[in-house]
Amino acid sequence: MLFQPAQQLNAEQLRAVTAPDGPALVIAAAGTGKTQTLTCRVAWLVLERQVDPRRILLLTFTNRAAREMLDRAAQLVGGGVGGMWGGTFHHAANRMLRRNAALLGYGNDYSILDEDDSLRLLKHCVTDLGLKDKKFPKPRVLNTVISLAANRGVELADTVKDHFAGHEVDIAGILKVAERYAQRKRELNAMDFDDLLVNGLRLLREHTDVTAYYQERMQHVLVDEYQDTNALQADFVDIIAARHRNLMAVGDDFQSIYSWRGAAVQNILSFPKRYPEAQIFTLEENYRSTQSILDVANQVIAGNPDQFQKTLRATRPAEVKPTLVKVTDGGHQARYIVAKVRQLLDSGAVESGEIAVLYRSHFHSMELQMELARARMDYVLMSGVRFFEQAHIKDVCTLLRLAANPADSLAFSRMVEMLPKVGPKKAQSLWRALGEHANLRDAAKRAKLLELLPKEAQPLWQAAMEGVFADDETGAVLDRPDESILRFTEHFYADYAEDTFDNARQRIEDIDELMSFAAKYADTAAFLSEMALLTNLDTEQNLHKATPAKSIRLSTIHQAKGLEWKAVFVLWLVEGMFPAVRSLEEDATLAEERRLFYVAVTRAKNYLWLSVPRMRKMRDGGLMMCAPSQFIEELDPALLQVDKAGGVVMPSTRWRGY
Predict the structure, then answer these.
(1) Which of 255, 257, 221, 263 is nearest to 238 (CA)?
(2) How far apart are CA 48 and CA 355, in angstroms?
(3) Are strands 649-651 and 641-643 parallel, antiparallel or unpaired?
């Protein structure tokens, strides 16, 4: 049977698919058909080169991607890809370990711990070492730090220092827990998810006979999304492919946006140095977006140093230029998007499931979520829990709920259970001892609660209350919701979040945004009423919700990678928000922020709106003027049309200094 691709390959794709033996790097820019290219490469190897499918290893980042490629290849080959190794890096490592685990001191019947198993085991390790009652990171945070060190292939102590920079932490205790955790896994004949890759790589490095077997067997190695590989995955691939050197790595350095979880863009950038004889193929013909959208993506990403330069070309003509939206603030931005979505739907240009709103950080969507709830428009939040339903938002509002209603036992329990040695039963006994009434405006009541708390909890509670009620024994601060949240966070919750959540910094950013929202309200009661109204609107919408396919998508850009929509809005394109403030002084981080902008733009197929608010409302009620994102400033004004959000769309001529 001759190789006949299901779809016509363009010249770029065909060259990659039919590349001769040897290492090859396929730089597949956004929307250029990398899945089709990889699938056809498999079919070509089997049909034209007569390679036994059992001697092909296809590595992907999700099982879904592997299944899709194998199914497509099977259709092209006529079903003849049985026995081919296709799956994630962890899947491949697990297959090797099942045959050779004894060489590393494990039984071949080892268990694989899921996340819940790992967290439970870490919790037991903390207890075994007597660290349970101290101010100590929670199991989820420990798991994240241990995992990050493993995937980056660096010392745990260094990762701990970086992760907890600016916060006091028991580094020696964390290292002891990690050592105990490793010991317990061995005793249980168990590996967690990261161990599969760590031990798979160790197997190949330490046992040459095993290495030789797999190097000989895997005549061809193909890797998808190569730009997302971490240090361990890159080493794993290099070792397996060392014998035949028939390695085809497919990826796009422009879309490397996961350094925060261990991905190293340097793996793809250094490929030609590690494989000097490698052929490089570049896919630039884009099947997703119009040329006007691609012009924006091309111009901004060209500003990044140290990359494989490429220019996206559309396969269809430009229809309408992307729109630069000039709005006053976040509230205006939200109202504009709701109105524009209604216009799109009423015109029939798109359906609601073909619309996405993308943003750099989760808290950027807060005002839009509220506006959509008020407008009773269905939306799916792809990037997490809806704003007011998030645990940390509820946590910092417990003080305010008790201020408004001292008989709120749920708020009381939630608040005191954040303290050491206080669980649900203890919280209820404290509640009863206080007469089922916790008026925290009353200094005597606060003092009584302090006496009743376990000794481990008393210092934290005392520091929190002294901070909240500093120079204010009357409790008047509780009538100022933004100030109350600020003080509670500064004197208690920030440290609690650092020890409890693996993404504490992002959660604190959410709380900062909550303070700005709270500052608009005259008192705590009004603030809590609005929160309850919006939360209940969300709940009502969920109960009568259209199918997800008929709902607008809200997503962080990280979550949106690999997806596409006819119409895309990008929020908060101002300095300090996108790019994020912490990236402005680090060249490497800023380069990744620019790649993130590129990913956002290239999700759009037909329509793109780039929103630039003029100002942000601050916690103190004041306004902060915002500078347009440097990514917007870098664009030629001729590439965009400008909407000043007054209903008139006009060609762009100049916006610098806006």
Answers:
(1) 221
(2) 42
(3) antiparallel
In whole angstroms, give the CA distance from residue 363 to residue 608: 21
Place of tokens 């809005």: 569
Spatial separation of the C-alpha atoms in residues 387 and 383, rounded to whole Å: 10
- Look-up of token digits 């910094």: 505
Is the distance from CB of 228 to CB of 251 less than 8 angstroms? Answer: yes
Residue 60: exposure state from Cβ atoms within 10 A (0-12, 13-18, ≥19) = buried
Q: What is the mean pLDDT of residues 318-331?
A: 92
The pair of three-digit structure tokens given for residue 295, joined into one six-digit string: 């012009």
Q: What pLDDT digit, counting tens, does each position of 34-43 carry? A: 989 999 999 8
Residues in the chain: 658
| Whole-structure pTM value | 0.80
Indicate the DSSP class of residue 354: G
Q: Write the pLDDT tens digit of every residue in 397-420.
A: 998 988 888 888 888 999 999 998
Alpha-carbon distance of 201 to 395, in angstroms, equals 42
Alpha-carbon dihedral sign for residues 179, 185, 191, 192? negative
Q: What tokens appear for 471 in the block?
A: 């120079």
Encode burial over 323-344: b for 16+ CB neighbours within 10 A, e otherwise: bbbbbebbbbbbbbbbebbeeb
Greatest C-alpha distance within the chain: 87
Nearest to 52 by CA among 37, 64, 42: 42
The residues near 614 (Cβ < 8 Å, ≥ 6 apart) are: 326, 327, 328, 329, 625, 626, 658
Amino acid at 549: A
First to last CA, the chain: 62
Q: Do residues 610 and 324 lie in contact, with contact meaning Cβ atoms separated by under 8 Å?
A: yes
Cα–Cα distance, 524 to 544 (Å, whole number): 31
Structure tokens at 144: 């994240």
Q: Alpha-carbon distance 572 to 556, whole Å? A: 12
Instruction: Kindly report, residue by residue over 516-572, the tens digit of the pLDDT.
Output: 888 878 888 888 877 776 665 544 444 334 446 678 999 999 989 989 999 999 999
202, HSE (Cβ side, Cα atoms, 13 Å): 17
Task: List the catalytic residues.
Answer: 34-35, 224-225, 255, 603
Distant-in-sequence, close-in-space partners of 447: CB < 8 Å, separation ≥ 6: none
Q: Is 453 left (phi over 0), alpha (psi -120 to 50) or beta?
A: beta
